[in-house]
Design brief:
The protein is an alpha/beta fold. Helix content is about 25%, strand content about 15%. The chain is built from seven helices and eight strands, in the order H-E-H-E-H-E-E-E-H-E-H-E-H-E-H. The chain has an eight-stranded parallel barrel. The longest helix is centred in the first third of the chain and has 11 residues.
């Protein structure tokens, strides 16, 4: 599955269509090497989503990833590490719903993104660099996490994405075969967890 996806990358990754990897919740052996390989193979950005990881664990992971790749990383937690490791982005979510005051001096250089799970939530994204919308398809990594957007909703979905004023990145069940459809639906990118990290 990963090989098929990476083969499809040159046709899709561009300034207009971002390809993003999202890590599993738990740090795993060899993760730094996997992240490095994915970034060097054509994935544009990697989101580090490790909600239960301690600061020492996150520091160890970041230090194992070559520093020249740090600007292409986005943190979902442990925002305090952004400055020390020249991290390129932060992702807001239910645990971290707003940019901390301590990071506001870095706002000009940080990518800021947000998780959304409905079309209504997209309207509140303001000046985000992009928002993820999920689950577009049935999840690969989460059992029983089913699509919230049946094919009958695609015309409305495409129109809303085109008009919402923020770049929208599809998340949930994304595979290489689905990239053309996502492009047709006006998504600005695709974010992948299961297609890249399962099995680990």
């Amino acid at each position: 599955m990963v090989a098929d996806l990476l083969t499809a990358l040159p046709s899709y990754d561009s300034d207009d269509f971002l390809l993003i990897g999202i890590t599993p919740p738990h740090i795993f052996d060899g993760e730094a090497d996997r992240i490095t390989s994915l970034l060097e193979s054509g994935i544009r950005l990697i989101h580090l989503r490790h909600p239960a990881a301690s600061l020492p664990e996150m520091r160890a992971l970041l230090e194992a990833i070559p520093s020249h790749l740090h600007p292409r990383l986005t943190l979902h937690d442990s925002f305090e590490l952004c400055e020390a490791y020249a991290i390129g982005g932060v992702h807001l979510n239910s645990r971290n719903p707003s940019l901390p005051d301590t990071l506001k001096p870095l706002a000009d250089r940080l990518r800021v993104s947000r998780s959304c799970h409905s079309l209504h939530e997209l309207a509140d994204c303001g000046a985000m660099d992009y928002a993820t919308l999920s689950p577009i398809f049935d999840s690969i990594s989460k059992d029983r996490y089913r699509s919230g957007f049946p094919p009958s909703s695609y015309p409305q979905l495409a129109q809303h994405i085109n008009e919402c004023g923020v770049r929208v990145v599809a998340l949930g069940g994304v595979t290489a075969e689905r990239l053309p459809l996502l492009h047709q639906l006006n998504f600005s990118g695709a974010a992948m967890l299961g297609a890249l990290f399962k099995p680990v």
